[in-house]
Structure to design on (836 residues):
């Protein structure tokens, strides 16, 4: 009796735990990369001092009129309109990435989960932990990012890409020959972070502490 | 000074505060676009995030607890105490340093609300603040957040409405206004929260509300916040072809809300885990409560899953091993919440009587009966005559209670269809028994933000540009006087209640002077017992009650008069009358008026309730 009860959920958990963990991990890795790019040109966020109003971390859609880089992988636009720069390679400041990791750790125990060796644990235990990770990651995504699909068509449907389509946001593959318009089927609808509202950091705050050690007195 | 640009509404809540505003240049009739302010606050040490809600918590950190420079705000590089999200988080782990529910303390008649008593059970070295100071700190944070975003339009120059529970006593209202004045918000006016919810509904309908209600209807507003349940009745009448809204009754101050529900679920799970032989540490119970809040919303929808898994991870870095796992089933939620807080009860059921607490208690007077439907039954029973004096309402003698025809709900609790339906089901069952038509739900309410949104909208309609809810004071006020009957040895002289402020006094009006004088000794404080009644609508100023039933009059903290000796010699006895006035702000003000000369002295509410019991015997 008890064995039966355990067996059924275990089988389900394997699937769900695996899928959820994989999805969460991939999504977050993508986002981490995206964040590093996003903040490549922006300086370390600072706490606004008494007089200046905090500009809202609004994003904009128009791209900087920097040299086009059609061959680069898709990435979200920078968080602010920056004056045109002639840089080819942007260097990421680590704070935004660290901050995101810290948030994921705080809300989702993300670092704990990934750093743990899961080999010796049962799928049921991993499944339980994934609930914490998944709920927390969702919360972070919902709170700090506004995500929208790049393409609104259903996945699997046929669509035509006009001449001059944005190669940064749509990646074509397969039989790429001739001139656009290209017609093909939508494999993945893509994600775009249309808005980012990451919290601001206090001057002198050490973002490399993703989670402080905790001591109960 | 130029005209205000914005009308701002502040919902200073028990657990969360929200600021809404409307740009007065953008409004057009009943189309008033509202925004909710993003409030910068510490969300982790050294991290400032923006949220729509400011959790109403204050944390007094130990000086060694947090890194220097991590406690900053955009407008203050070293705030005295932490307010908002981080305060809530830190306080969860270190409750001895957390100030919570300051609003409930502000309305707690059993304590001196100006004395530093929060947090109530903390060691000596933790700095304490008064309920008034805590409320002031929250308002100050909101003001600074506003001024940061609108440096050109500082909050002190905008129209400002602060909401209070309808059941706030005169002293708590005055303290709320005082908190605002302390930080320069002298223009703030008060609005009852259920009224505010209705204003928000009116605003959201963009004029369409006139099609949704008819003259002769009674709207019941049920506002279940995090910590309080607030009830009001609003009658719809017609004057010269226009619909008029009249707030005809308010309910008791009930300290019972959504937080109680989360805790109830956590207790259910704790019992379940204990039955499995697992013992919970306090932090785990707290984490459970938190998890139940989210699970509750999932399980209380119409097509809810049968159960939701609840996981409390260990506090160590090993996430997978030490997690506490359980699940919350739909049935458990139904039993604990639907039947626990909204049971199907008969109209005649009375709330389990609250034992009269001693005057010097250190806890909040939480409602002892968690059944919201029972509180509702008692309220509707008591207010059966609420519309008696309004034109267009024919009191049916067979009615056992006041029959609402529409219901407006407010509070995150009612995001749940199940709870909403249950409440209506119970109400409609009573109505059916009385042969009255069923009440309907007013749709389109914003359950989380309605109170602050309605307040911002009210600031606009106050300028005479939209429908206003009439109401005035929701209670009549009385002072206790000794009866003139001959004294009987061994018995205290019977007490009579003298009406000094009638029911429904409008803002900015003054009651006539009661034909009764008190001899007050100059320079010595004189105390009066003070009463309020939310049901006696007919008593005029000067009415003397020698008998009343127990639930008709509620005793409030004493009031105190001290005649200063500027025109009189100390020790003189001056005959005075008591004058009542309702200020434009919405607070009740009592004054002693000298019989000859007309000199006036302010009468203080709520003078350190309970400290000198002998003074209570004066008069």
């Amino acid at each position: 009796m008890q064995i039966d009860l355990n067996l059924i959920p275990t089988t389900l958990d394997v699937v769900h735990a695996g899928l959820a963990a994989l999805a969460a991990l991939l999504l977050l890795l993508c986002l981490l990369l995206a964040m590093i790019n996003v903040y490549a040109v922006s300086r370390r966020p600072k706490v606004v001092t008494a007089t200046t109003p905090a500009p809202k971390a609004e994003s904009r859609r128009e791209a900087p009129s920097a040299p086009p880089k059609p061959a680069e992988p898709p990435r979200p636009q920078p968080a602010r309109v920056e004056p045109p720069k002639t840089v080819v390679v942007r260097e990421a400041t680590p704070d935004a990435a660290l901050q995101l990791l810290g948030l994921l750790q705080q809300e989702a125990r993300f670092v704990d989960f990934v750093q743990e060796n899961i080999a010796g644990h049962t799928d049921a235990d991993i499944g339980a932990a994934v609930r914490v990770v998944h709920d927390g990651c969702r919360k972070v995504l919902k709170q700090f990012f506004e995500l929208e699909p790049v393409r609104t068509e259903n996945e699997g449907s046929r669509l035509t890409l006009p001449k001059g389509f944005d190669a940064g946001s749509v990646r074509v593959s397969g039989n790429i020959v001739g001139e656009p318009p290209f017609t093909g089927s939508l494999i993945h609808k893509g994600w775009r972070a249309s808005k980012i509202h990451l919290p601001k950091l206090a001057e002198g705050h050490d973002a490399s502490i993703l989670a402080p050690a905790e001591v109960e007195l | 000074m130029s005209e205000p640009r914005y009308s701002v509404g502040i919902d200073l809540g028990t657990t969360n505060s929200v600021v809404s505003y409307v740009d007065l240049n953008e409004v057009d009739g009943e189309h008033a676009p509202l925004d909710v302010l993003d409030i910068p606050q510490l969300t982790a040490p050294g991290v400032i995030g923006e949220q729509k809600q400011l959790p109403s918590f204050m944390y007094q950190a130990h000086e060694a607890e947090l890194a220097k420079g991590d406690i900053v705000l955009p407008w203050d590089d070293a705030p005295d105490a932490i307010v908002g999200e981080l305060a809530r988080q830190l306080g969860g782990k270190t409750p001895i340093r957390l100030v919570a529910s300051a609003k409930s303390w502000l309305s707690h008649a059993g304590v001196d609300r100006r004395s530093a008593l929060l947090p109530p059970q903390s060691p000596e070295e933790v700095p304490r603040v008064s309920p008034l100071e805590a409320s002031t700190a929250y308002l100050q944070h909101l003001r600074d957040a506003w001024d940061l975003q609108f440096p050109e339009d500082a909050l002190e120059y905008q129209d400002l409405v602060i909401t209070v529970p309808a059941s706030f006593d005169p002293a708590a209202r005055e303290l709320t206004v005082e908190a605002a004045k302390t930080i320069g918000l002298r223009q703030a006016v008060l609005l009852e929260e259920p009224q505010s919810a209705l204003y928000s509904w009116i605003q959201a309908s963009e004029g369409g509300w006139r099609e949704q209600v008819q003259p002769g209807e009674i709207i019941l507003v049920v506002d279940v916040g995090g910590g309080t349940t607030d009830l009001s009745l609003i009658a719809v009448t017609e004057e010269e072809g226009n619909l008029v809204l009249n707030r005809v009754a308010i309910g008791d101050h009930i300290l019972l809300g959504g937080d109680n529900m989360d805790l109830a679920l956590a207790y259910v799970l704790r019992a379940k885990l204990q039955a499995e032989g697992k013992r919970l540490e306090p932090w785990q119970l707290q984490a459970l409560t938190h998890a139940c809040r989210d699970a509750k919303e999932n399980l209380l929808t119409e097509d809810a899953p049968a159960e939701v898994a609840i996981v409390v991870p260990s506090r160590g870095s090993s996430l997978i091993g030490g997690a506490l796992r359980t699940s919350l089933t739909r049935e458990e939620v139904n039993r604990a919440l639907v039947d626990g807080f909204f049971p199907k009860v008969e109209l005649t059921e009375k709330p389990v009587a609250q034992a009269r607490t001693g005057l010097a208690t250190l806890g909040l007077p939480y409602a002892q009966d968690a059944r919201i439907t029972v509180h509702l039954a008692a309220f509707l029973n008591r207010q059966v005559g609420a519309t008696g004096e309004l034109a267009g309402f024919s009191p049916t003698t067979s009615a056992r209670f006041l029959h609402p025809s529409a219901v407006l709900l407010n509070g995150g609790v009612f995001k749940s269809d199940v709870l909403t339906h249950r409440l209506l089901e119970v109400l409609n069952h009573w109505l059916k028994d009385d042969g009255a038509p069923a009440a309907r739900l007013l749709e389109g309410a914003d359950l989380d933000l309605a109170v602050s949104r309605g307040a911002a909208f009210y600031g606009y309609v106050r300028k005479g540009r939209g429908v206003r809810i009439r109401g005035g004071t929701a209670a009549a006020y009385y002072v206790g006087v000794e009866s003139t009957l001959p004294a009987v040895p061994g018995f205290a002289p019977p007490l009579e209640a003298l009406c000094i402020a009638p029911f429904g006094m409008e803002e900015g009006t003054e009651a006539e002077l009661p034909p009764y004088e008190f001899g007050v000794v100059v320079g010595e404080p004189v105390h009066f017992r003070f009463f309020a009644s939310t049901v006696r609508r007919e008593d005029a100023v000067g009415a003397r009650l020698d008998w009343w039933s127990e639930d008709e009059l509620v005793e409030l903290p004493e009031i105190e008069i001290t005649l200063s000796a500027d025109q009189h010699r100390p020790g003189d006895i001056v005959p005075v009358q008591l004058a009542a006035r309702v200020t434009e702000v919405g607070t009740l003000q009592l004054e002693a008026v000298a019989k000859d000369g007309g000199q006036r002295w302010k009468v203080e509410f709520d003078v350190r309730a309970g400290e000198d019991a002998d003074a209570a015997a004066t008069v």
